[in-house]
Amino acid sequence: MQILLKTKVEQAPKAVMAAFDRELFIQLKPPGVGLKLLRFDGSETGDRVEMQLNFGLFKQNWRGRITDHGEERGGYYFVDEAEGEELPFFLKKWRHKHWVLPADSGSWIVDEIDYEAPSGLNLLLYPSLWLQFAYRKPIYRKYFRLAGPERQ
Predict the structure, then answer these.
(1) Is 90 helix (H, G, I), strand (E, B) or coil?
(2) What is the pTM of this model?
(3) Could you tell me the domains of the chain?
(4) pLDDT value for 84
């Protein structure tokens, strides 16, 4: 299954890409899910991200790695994947390509997500995952808001 979301922000692509760090990662946590960040190396190829998700009645570990990063289409990207890594029981495969692309007076943050759930759960899981990533849109806008002449 695929999810694609685009968010317009006010800062230039280079500044936005540089801010994809531990602090932003924690701020993007969806409501209703406890998150314990166990490891966050960064957003470059070979970096790892490990977390424990707390859903109240149960906890699930998630271990992923950054499999690619670079410059393309006038912007920047990095890819986090978790296939064959440790994933919550409701996912078999995860690939999330983060794009930061130039836009008039700012950037587009594009979340391009491909996932696979166990048999029959792809469509059932889609609304929940879509909402969790749509929740990021106002956070991105606020986090990357600039005033006046600082805008690049």
Answers:
(1) coil
(2) 0.90
(3) 2-146 (3.30.530.20)
(4) 66
